[in-house]
Design a protein that fits this description.
The complex is a heterotrimer of chains A (394), B (365) and C (406).
Chain A lengths: L1 H6 L9 H35 L29 H34 L4 H14 L4 H13 L9 E3 L3 E4 L2 E4 L1 E4 L3 H29 L5 H19 L4 E4 L2 E3 L2 E3 L2 E4 H28 L2 H9 L4 H31 L11 H13 L2 H30 L5
Antiparallel strand pairs in A: 1-2, 2-3, 3-8, 4-5, 6-7
Helix pairs in contact in A: 3-4, 3-8, 3-11, 4-8, 5-8, 6-7, 8-10, 9-10, 10-12, 11-12
Chain B lengths: L1 H25 L4 H18 L2 H8 L2 E5 L2 E2 L3 E3 L5 E2 L1 H14 L5 E5 L5 H6 L5 E2 L7 H5 L3 E3 L4 E10 L13 E6 L3 H13 L3 E6 L2 H9 L5 E5 H8 L8 E3 L5 E5 L2 E3 L3 H20 L15 H6 L6 H4 L7 H9 L2 H9 L28
Parallel strand pairs in B: 1-5, 1-6, 9-10, 9-11
Antiparallel strand pairs in B: 2-3, 3-4, 7-14, 8-11, 8-12, 8-13
Chain C lengths: L21 H8 L4 H28 L4 H4 L1 H6 L7 H22 L5 H13 L7 H20 L9 H20 L18 H28 L3 H16 L2 H15 L9 H27 L2 H9 L4 H16 L1 H14 L11 H10 L7 H30 L5
Chain lengths: 394, 365, 406
């Protein structure tokens, strides 16, 4: 091919694809670099003239001076801006991780409901999906925060569920474990339980491969961990004491308080994302060809086994990639917390810190860098996973 | 195919190199040279592109204001802006154009306002903005004369029986983020050793809505705003502003650093309204002063000396226009916050020094 | 009836049974076995309860007065009432343009066309509307029908390209009508974009966002697939960067930082335009990824055949590859457009008064305190109607083109 091509008469340079290729590239790079520099120059000169403040991240070490409503780590107004940033980041993680877990669970349930033979169940799932996929998340979140959670009874008239769980427009107060001295020992025992569980799972899998009868690995794993945990609990003197919320003064005291903003954000994200996950799950299950199911039935597998051993592993291959991007979307969408007052990364850094310091460029660099690295990390893991499960075609 | 790939790679490298060269040509990286050119450029800049000339060219003033604070800056259902702060925006427009409506109010959140100003998108902030040292220095602002002396307060439900900070132990407090109130709240509660939950919102509407619904036990902001906002609660009579002042809050207009002429103009428009009240000139009786022999009045109304020219305005009666169109300080205050309004806010500190307040405008001479 | 095959998830292919009565249908679809019957009963109870609560709220508790009282705000924000006729003019033209485009693309009056034509007529039945509004809607429908029939006399027929030009022309004309040109006086005084609001702003942002982000997205997708490494690297960097950050951070940057990047004294960029640019830049990256999926689905043979025919790279792309690639991804693209439309609500967080922004100001109005439920339900429904229509249309197109069945 190549030689024949070369022996032909060369076209004039302005139609030669190779020359054109180089030319286009040079042009594009020049334009992009030029624009970038143009913006950069304007920014630098603008900063010098207007702000008289150079770009620097040293302000992160200064005292923040403001309080944050909820934090997973110890924080107070004497801490630094950097600490406040971390508080926001952890809050984002908290919402994102819980959101992902619950949205997946709800999404799978609704996706399976959608495929149910029961007309009513399948219709309910369809209505759910069609409704929540077609309204803006932000409207849902604001509605949820202002028209649902804020309209709950005031804390003095809180709804008390057994537990006791206090339900009010301040949020949900639930009983929570308080660590005692033996807690650190118990943590080690739990870790040991995990290792043991993993070992059992590995052993069962190897055995399953040998005998051809796959046991319920996940179940045995959980049983092992639970057993170790239970034994540890019995032998140690109470690693956790249960702290129950009580109504005292203005708020409920003790226990764990899940604030109204947190609950509104979390439930909004779950409800919205679950509709998308349901569609992904449905499409995944439907992508497994009918023949697979029939073959499984012919082999004498019961429906549960068919779903677990035949349908699901194959559906997973289709489900995982869009599911990951849905997880990423959920994480990025959690930045809408700013609309309902939950102190996530964007609200703390892009709103409060930025307001109090006026450091737009520095803060935006940090915020976008954080989200970007999260996203790139996920795509990287995704690619690795995809390569592992890729169907090897003949 | 292989040679093609090689060529493409060569193209990429070539384009990179060219890009770098362009970068080198355009970038102001060379240190001393830049400083020089900047210094040379700065004065030239000021002659051609003063804020005033930009405003005059544009034909209207862009005033960064509030859309959510009845009495100060509020967007009514007809889509018009009104309020005390908005009237000062109108006063500046009146001084420049002789037309109080040559104005665009750019509603901004507490968060945006300074960035909008420093990016040149607005000309002046009049948005219940507290004058603080770090804003004056770090943020590159210049604060004009205080138009409203305020203090941060706390509003609670009457039934809670709260009267001091200590009573609020364990309470939830609603606050707007990006404000000095957010910092004062943290400071004062920490100093008093009172534990509390800060419930932070992005704007007044949300903050007061949450308070009204019982999400918070107290809401904090400037006392004037509390008074103004109390009227918008479901049951205004059930709430009380406790007698605790968390901070000093001098509210006034702010402009960018570096344009002194514009700064002067904003200052003197504000002072003119106070001087008019001192002299007893109102929008109604101003014409009867037009033949006044009092030199102080003459200077204020542009009858003698050319004081408007000193702030860059050609219209010699610039302050007279302000008074004619907006009235003096007392008129502006009464129209928006006075006894005839729902707020009925006593003047208190915001009275002339002759009436026991602290409004003391320097003389026009 | 209890064999394994019967518990299969897809029963649509079961042979029709003789019991095609309601009872038979119910037995098959609702009460096929014990578990199913239990599920049906529980689900029916839940549905009944939810419907009861919703109805009770809608009919008794809800203060619907807030909607008619603020109807104009919801529809057009602060757009001055005396200039509202210009919105109707733009709508007349839109009716005409749709009629004309229908003629140019499809050429025949189908059921779908009838449905489109009936929309304005159906809207006339909304009890809230004044007789003026109904008259305007009648004109819109008339303009559509008129343009469709007059379009038959045009020299150009069955040309998608001509339809695209008509659409682009309309965009420009509409902007001029809405924005005005004659300064503060004259027949069409300028209405600054900051006054555009409500549904008007939401729809405009979505409309322009879609039309402008689409070409950019296609260009980026082609760039990402390009043989030229510099272009590929730039495209990939752009796409991955934008997809990695939340839209709200771009919107914030546009609002507070854009002016920093522009030279001193540069005329101020319109705030609505800034939001629009952020939306376009954001959406283009997602469109690019969707289009890339289509490009990858094109087999090598198509490229090789085009090359064998002696087509240039440009022609291969424009006439062979893109039409096939785009058709393959219509459903995903529509999905992307829907999410762009929904994402326009984020501009409320940067101080624009789109549908959601207006809703927030209404609920803060002292006269209408405590009406969050009513206002936000209406806003959500408005968004739902538009999004659902788009997704429904896309499903129909998908079926018509037979995508996914080949």
């Amino acid at each position: 091919m190549q030689e024949i091509h070369a022996s032909q008469i060369r076209p004039p340079f302005y139609r030669d694809e190779r020359v054109l290729g180089i030319f286009t590239q040079v042009l594009v790079v020049v334009v992009v670099v030029g624009l970038g520099l143009f913006f950069y120059n304007n920014m630098i000169t603008g900063l010098r003239e207007k702000h008289t403040v150079a770009i620097s991240f040293s302000f992160l070490g200064q005292v923040a001076g403001f309080d944050i409503g909820e934090s997973m780590i110890e924080y107070s107004r004497e801490r630094t801006y950097a600490r406040a940033f971390v508080v926001g980041l952890l809050n984002t993680f908290q919402v994102a991780i819980l959101g992902i877990i619950f949205a997946t669970a709800l999404g799978i349930v609704i996706g399976v409901m959608r495929l149910s033979t029961n007309f009513l169940i399948s219709r309910i799932a369809l209505i759910y999906i069609d409704f929540f996929r077609n309204i803006p998340l932000l409207v849902l979140l604001i509605f949820w925060a202002q028209a649902v959670f804020l309209k709950l009874p005031r804390v003095a008239e809180a709804i008390v569920l057994p537990g006791p769980i206090f339900l009010s427009n301040r949020g949900v107060a639930v009983p929570w474990g308080l660590p005692t001295e033996s807690w650190s020992t118990y943590q080690i025992i739990l870790a040991a339980g995990l290792v043991l569980g993993a070992a059992v799972a590995y052993f069962l899998r190897e055995q399953g491969k040998r005998t051809g009868r796959m046991p319920l690995i996940t179940l045995w794993f959980l049983v092992t961990v639970a057993a170790v945990g239970l034994i540890g609990w019995i032998f140690l003197p109470q690693p956790l004491t249960f702290d129950q919320p009580v109504l005292e003064g203005f708020n409920t005291q003790g226990g764990k308080i899940l604030s109204q903003q947190f609950m509104a954000l979390l439930s909004g994200l779950i409800i919205y994302t679950a509709a998308f996950i349901a569609e992904i799950v449905r499409a995944g299950i439907q992508s497994v060809s009918k023949g697979q199911r029939e073959a499984a039935t012919a082999l004498g597998l019961n429906p549960a086994q068919t779903l677990r051993l035949v349908i699901f592993p194959q559906a997973l291959r289709v489900i995982i990639p869009p599911l990951t991007s849905e997880y990423l979307n959920l994480t990025k969408n959690s930045s809408l917390a700013i609309a309902i007052g939950y102190p996530d990364l964007f609200a703390v850094a892009g709103n409060t810190i930025l307001n109090q310091t006026g450091r737009e460029i520095e803060m935006f660099t940090m915020i976008m860098g954080t989200y970007l690295s999260l996203s790139l990390l996920t795509s990287f893991l995704m690619n690795v996973y995809n390569r592992r499960i890729r169907l090897v075609e003949r | 195919m292989k040679s093609m790939r090689k060529l493409n790679k060569a193209g990429m490298i070539l384009s990179m190199v060219i890009g770098m060269i362009i970068a080198a040509c355009m970038s102001p990286a060379a240190g001393p040279e830049v400083v020089e050119s900047d210094e040379a450029a700065a004065p030239a800049m000021q002659e051609t592109q003063t804020t005033l000339s930009i405003v005059q060219e544009r034909g209207h003033l862009v005033c960064i204001g509030n859309a959510q604070l009845p009495g100060f800056g509020f967007l009514d259902s007809e889509g018009n802006f009104s309020g005390f702060d908005v009237d000062y925006c109108r006063a500046i427009a009146a001084a420049i154009f002789g037309d109080a409506d040559a104005l665009e109010v750019r509603p901004a959140s507490a968060r945006e306002r300074f960035t909008i100003l420093s990016s040149g998108e607005g000309d002046v902030i009049i948005r219940n903005t507290t004058w603080t040292m770090s804003r004056d220095t770090d943020l590159g602002m210049n604060f004009g004369p205080t138009t409203f002396y305020d203090g941060q307060g706390l509003m609670v439900r009457k039934e809670s029986g709260v009267s001091t900070l200590q009573d609020l132990q364990g309470a939830s407090v609603c606050v707007v983020t990006g404000t000095t109130t957010e910092l004062n709240l943290a400071d004062q509660f920490a100093a008093a050793g009172v534990a509390y939950e800060a419930v932070v919102f992005e704007d007044f509407d949300q903050s007061f809505n949450a308070y009204d619904e019982g999400r918070c036990d107290a809401v904090t902001t400037d006392k004037s705003s509390l008074v103004s906002r109390q009227t918008t609660l479901t049951a205004p009579a059930d709430h009380v502003i406790i007698n605790v002042t968390l901070s000093k809050e001098p509210l006034g207009p702010a402009v960018r650093h570096g344009d002194d002429q514009w700064f002067d103009l904003v200052n003197w428009v504000v002072y003119a309204t106070m001087l008019a009240e001192e002299a007893g000139i109102t929008s109604e009786n101003i014409d009867s002063f037009m033949d006044s022999n009092d030199p102080n009045i003459g200077k204020l109304l542009g009858l003698e000396g050319d004081f408007c020219a000193k702030v860059g305005l050609e219209n010699a009666g610039c302050f007279a226009d302000v008074i004619r169109l907006l009235g003096n300080y007392a008129e502006i205050y009464d129209r928006n916050l006075g006894p005839d309004t729902v707020f009925d806010l006593p003047r208190g500190l915001n009275s002339l020094y002759t009436d026991g307040g602290i409004l003391y405008a320097p003389p026009i001479r | 009836m209890t064999t394994a095959a019967d518990t299969s998830l897809d029963r649509s292919v079961m042979p029709p049974s003789e019991r095609r009565t309601l009872l038979g249908w119910m037995r098959r679809n609702l009460f096929s076995d014990l578990l199913n019957s239990a599920l049906t009963v529980v689900a029916a109870a839940v549905v009944f309860l939810v419907a009861l609560l919703l109805l009770r709220w809608a009919l008794t508790t809800a203060q619907w007065g807030v909607i008619p009282a603020n109807f104009n705000l919801i529809m057009r924000g602060q757009y001055p009432a005396e200039e509202a006729w210009r919105l109707w003019l733009a709508l007349y033209l839109l009716g005409g343009v749709i009629g004309l485009m229908w003629r140019l693309i499809s050429g025949k009056f189908s059921t779908a066309a009838l449905i489109v034509f009936l929309i304005p007529l159906a809207l006339r039945e909304v009890p809230l509307f004044s007789w003026m509004t109904r008259f305007h809607l009648l004109v819109v429908a008339g303009a559509g029908a008129g343009a469709f029939y007059l379009g038959a006399y045009l020299p150009i027929q069955r040309s998608v390209r001509a339809a695209v030009y008509v659409l682009l022309g309309y965009l420009v004309v509409m902007l001029v009508i809405l924005r005005g040109y004659s300064g503060d006086a004259g027949p069409m005084p300028t209405v600054t974009t900051i006054l555009w609001g409500g549904l008007l702003l939401s729809l405009l942002l979505a409309f322009f966002g879609i039309t402008l982000s689409f070409p950019l997205g296609v260009a980026l997708a082609l760039g990402r697939q390009s043989k030229l490494p510099a272009i590929r690297i730039i495209s990939v960097t752009y796409i991955e960067f934008i997809r990695g950050v939340p839209l709200i951070s771009l919107l914030f940057m546009g609002q507070v930082m854009l002016q920093l990047f522009l030279p001193d004294g540069f005329p101020l960029v319109d705030r609505v335009l800034r939001a629009l640019v952020a939306i376009i830049l954001f959406s283009a990256a997602y469109t690019a990824e969707n289009v890339r999926g289509g490009l990858q689905s094109i087999s090598r043979g198509q490229y090789e055949a085009a090359q064998a025919l002696g087509l240039s790279t440009y022609r291969t792309t424009m006439h062979i590859i893109l039409p096939q690639a785009l058709r393959a991804v219509i459903p995903v693209l529509v999905g992307q457009f829907i999410s762009l439309f929904k994402d326009t609500t984020l501009v409320a967080l940067v101080g624009l008064f789109d549908l959601l922004g207006i809703a927030r100001t209404i609920t803060a109005n002292p006269d209408w305190l405590g009406t969050q439920q009513e206002v936000f339900v209406v806003v959500a429904l408005l968004f739902w109607i538009f999004s659902y229509t788009m997704s429904y249309a896309s499903r129909r197109i998908e079926q018509r083109l037979g995508v996914g069945e080949r």
